[in-house]
């Protein structure tokens, strides 16, 4: 019985050590940054939750939902539905492209399709930080750009 337990413990330890970084993980984050369009710049803040799927030792794909608000009057929470895919650069770093749809941030605004890129860095076992750029294609209105920095927890 002792040999069986020791064998199982050794097998579990080898699986844990051999597991690639960032494999199949959920995450939640708080973020803030700036949005600019047509000469105007506004601060923004929000939250997001997502899940990344491991596609091998060096690639991943994921989904994310978010709620962001420009910090100015006459705006409302915009909800985002995005996908992202990218490369795992070592055990603690991700570089990715993203795209998706965001609902209108104000009553006179329109929802938009967006595309961008990001960089995510792990700090220890479960904390991470990220920096992300996004360009939103707003039909019939000037396009907008945003840069956000986020801090989150992976689990």
Q: Your description of this structure?
A:
With 155 residues, this protein is mainly beta. The chain has one domain: Porin (Beta Barrel), CATH 2.40.160. Helices cover 11% and strands 61% of the residues. It has one helix and eight strands, in the order αββββββββ. An eight-stranded antiparallel beta barrel has the order 1-2-3-4-5-6-7-8. Strand 1 and strand 2 form a beta hairpin. The two termini are 33 Å apart. The N terminus is likely disordered.
Q: Layout of SSEs?
A:
Blueprint: H1 2-18, E1 25-37, E2 40-54, E3 59-70, E4 78-88, E5 93-102, E6 112-123, E7 127-137, E8 144-154
Antiparallel strand pairs: 1-2, 1-8, 2-3, 3-4, 4-5, 5-6, 6-7, 7-8
Question: Which keywords apply here?
Answer:
155 residues, 11% helix, Porin, disordered N terminus, mainly beta, single chain, 8-stranded antiparallel β-barrel
Which regions have little confidence, pLDDT < 50, spanning 5+ residues? Answer: 1-21
CATH architecture: Beta Barrel
Q: Provide the CATH top-level class.
A: Mainly Beta
Q: State the share of residues found in helices, binned by percent.
A: 10-25%
* Strand order, sheet with most strands: 1-2-3-4-5-6-7-8
Number of helix segments?
Answer: 1
Classify the fold: give the CATH topology: Porin
Strand content: over 45%
Q: What is the number of domains?
A: 1
Structural class: mainly beta
What is the mean pLDDT? 88
Number of strands: 8
Q: Tell me about the largest β-sheet.
A: 8 strands, antiparallel, barrel
Distance between the termini: 33 Å
Measured on Cα atoms, how large is the radius of gyration?
19 Å
H-E order: HEEEEEEEE
Morphology: elongated
């Amino acid at each position: 019985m002792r040999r069986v337990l020791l064998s199982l413990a050794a097998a579990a330890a080898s699986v844990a050590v051999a597991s690639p970084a960032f494999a199949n993980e959920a995450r939640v984050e708080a973020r803030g940054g700036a949005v600019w369009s047509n000469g105007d710049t506004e601060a923004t803040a929000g939250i997001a939750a997502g899940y990344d799927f491991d596609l091998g030792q060096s690639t991943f794909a994921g989904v994310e939902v978010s709620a962001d608000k420009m910090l100015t009057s006459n705006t409302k929470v915009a909800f985002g539905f995005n996908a992202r895919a990218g490369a795992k650069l070592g055990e603690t770093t991700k570089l990715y492209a993203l795209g998706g749809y965001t609902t209108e941030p104000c009553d006179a605004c329109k929802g938009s399709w967006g595309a961008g890129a990001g960089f995510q860095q792990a700090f220890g076992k479960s904390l991470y930080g990220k920096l992300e750029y996004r360009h939103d294609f707003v039909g019939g209105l000037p396009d907008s750009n945003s840069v956000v920095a986020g801090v989150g927890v992976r689990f």
